[in-house]
């Protein structure tokens, strides 16, 4: 009985060696899991950005119908001003990852309805011109448009179509998201 009490007293805590082994194992697991976590987070950002842009396009179309006036979606800079085609918003970025805004015409002037900020980790390539929805049917001025959404910096873990999204906009103004690249260069 006394021997059991002595053994329990000596084994109450962990030795330095045991603690170092546990810390080393946790470090190895963390190092191995980090690339997967980063890739998962990046894919989540691509999905979120695609949904945000598609939602914005649907909102702009519905506002054109509701207000009976033209509603424009444009790329913006940090001061929420529309950018000209090919104009960089900062750090040389010329795509839609700069952010975008929805503007409605009121008395000949444009008023801001909604804006989305920049997200540098995701590249959104497509048309460089503004998108204008017109009443009475909410049609998009111009032809079919598309946007290719992907991680800005591709790595071994983020290559392939499962890391890309395509938003296709019909001439009627309706947008839909599909998985994979769409070759948006128009």
UniProtKB/TrEMBL annotation:
Keywords: Cell inner membrane, Cell membrane, Membrane, Methylation, Transmembrane, Transmembrane helix
Sequence ranges assigned to domain General secretion pathway GspH in this UniProt record: 50-173
GO cellular component: plasma membrane; type II protein secretion system complex
Residue spans crossing the bilayer: 20-42
Alphabetized Pfam families for the sequence: GspH (PF12019), N_methyl (PF07963)
Topology in membrane: Single-pass membrane protein
SUPFAM superfamilies recorded: Pili subunits
Statement: the UniProt record of this protein carries the keyword Cell inner membrane: yes
GO process terms (BP): protein secretion by the type II secretion system
Compartments reported by the entry: Cell inner membrane
Signal peptide extent: none
Alphabetized PROSITE patterns for the sequence: PROKAR_NTER_METHYL
Stated family: Belongs to the GSP H family.
Protein's UniProt name: Type II secretion system protein H
Lineage of origin: Bacteria, Pseudomonadati, Pseudomonadota, Betaproteobacteria, Burkholderiales
């Amino acid at each position: 009985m006394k021997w059991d009490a002595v053994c329990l007293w000596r084994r109450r805590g962990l030795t330095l060696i045991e603690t170092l082994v546990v810390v080393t194992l946790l470090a190895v697991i963390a190092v191995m899991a980090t690339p997967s976590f980063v890739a998962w987070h990046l894919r989540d950002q691509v999905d979120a950005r695609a949904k945000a842009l598609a939602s914005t396009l649907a909102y702009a179309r519905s506002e054109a119908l509701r207000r009976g006036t033209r509603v424009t979606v444009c790329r913006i800079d940090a001061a929420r001003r529309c950018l000209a085609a090919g104009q960089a918003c900062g750090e040389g970025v010329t795509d839609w990852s700069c952010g975008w805004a929805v503007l409605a015409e009121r008395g000949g002037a444009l008023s801001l309805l909604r804006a989305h900020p920049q997200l540098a980790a995701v590249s959104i390539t497509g048309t460089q011109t503004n998108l204008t929805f017109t009443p009475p049917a909410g049609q998009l001025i111009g032809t079919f448009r598309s946007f290719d959404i992907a991680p800005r910096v591709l790595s071994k873990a983020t290559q392939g179509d499962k890391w890309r999204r395509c938003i296709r906009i019909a001439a009627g103004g309706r947008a839909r998201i599909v998985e994979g690249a769409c070759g948006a260069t128009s």
